[in-house]
Amino acid sequence: MTGTTTPDVLLSIRDLRVSFDGFTAVDGVDLDVARGDIRFLIGPNGAGKTTLVDAVTGLSRASGSVEFDGRQLLGRSVHRIARMGIGRTFQTATVFERLTVEQNLDIAAGAGRSALTLLRRRRSTPQSVLRALEEIGLTAQRDKLAGALAHGQKQWLEIGMLLVQDARLLLLDEPVAGMSHEEREATGLLLQKVSRDRTVVVIEHDMDFMRSFARTVSVLHAGRVLSEGTVEEVQADPGVQEVYLGHAPVTDTGATGVPVPARTPAAQEA
Ligand code: ADP
Ligand code: MG
């Protein structure tokens, strides 16, 4: 299936379904992400957020349709999908801890070349690696072992690895979990920078982070899209308030607005 999406839509998902032994984790999701968007994907634990990203990136078998730039992704391998320009990070950082920051980026940039070739001392650093170091703010840490980086810096390095791979769509699974307030701010600014010429989908629980940096939001619940729109729109949606608070609020939402699931223990453990 090609040519069914409008030009400003980069990712178009239709009737996506993923089941595990009879349990349906993603239950008929429709989702369009426009080029240059910073789309937040929120929802309680078990809503199917990670599974949806797994399906898009080829890690889970799914039915329905996922078009990226008009090309069908379902049925393609993880490797092929990555090469088409889709990069994702996982809930736990997956950098090579015993290699330096620069070596990590180098390997990502040269995915396909042999590790031995890449590890040999090189005379010059590729431009793409220098640009990524700058963009993720780790130029001064380039010779540091990735394992010695602060938690936030590891996540940024992972994002840098997607940048050198020239990912046009970045799917980030809870990138600010465990980060300090300062690290969250820096991550949000990085996402804004990245989205100038790429598209970003962020799975996130932190509502303050979402309010600051989301351009659009989709709320997932029990494998379905419960609500979609701007931050204000989804926060005002009684269905969303019910899922997060267990009831629809009857009075004023206060200065910060509801819902605030990031403050509840259940929302933080994911
Ligand atoms: P979220 O990321 O929104 O917290 P997940 O996508 O991880 O949710 O999980 C959605 C549902 O699918 C959960 O009930 C989870 O237990 C189930 N699930 C996820 N992966 C598997 C799997 N590999 N096998 C069986 N069930 C799974
Ligand atoms: Mg998850």
Tell me briefly what this model is:
The chain is of the alpha/beta class and 270 residues long. It has 2 domains: 227 residues, Rossmann fold, CATH 3.40.50; 35 residues, no CATH class.
Q: Number of helix segments?
A: 11
Give the assembly state of these chains: single chain
Mean pLDDT: 87
Rounded Rg? 19 Å
The CATH topology of the largest domain comes to Rossmann fold
In CATH's first tier, which class of the largest domain applies?
Answer: Alpha Beta
How many individual domains? 2
Largest sheet: 6 strands, mixed
CA-CA gap between termini: 35 Å
Q: Strand order across the biggest sheet? A: 6-7-8-3-9-10
Low-confidence stretches: 251-270
Molecular structure report:
- The chain is α/β, with parallel strands linked by helices and 270 residues long.
- The chain has two domains: 9-235, 3-Layer(aba) Sandwich (Rossmann fold); 236-270, no CATH class.
- The protein has eleven helices and ten strands.
- Strands 6-7-8-3-9-10 form a six-stranded mixed β-sheet, sandwiched between helices. It has a four-stranded antiparallel β-sheet with strand order 2-1-4-5, covered by helices on one side.
- The protein is globular, with a radius of gyration of 19 Å.
- The two termini are 35 Å apart.
- 41% of the residues are buried.
- The protein binds adenosine-5'-diphosphate and magnesium ion.
- Adenosine-5'-diphosphate is lined by residues 20, 23, 25, 43, 45-51, 270.
- Adenosine-5'-diphosphate binds at residues 20, 23, 25, 43, 45-51, 270.
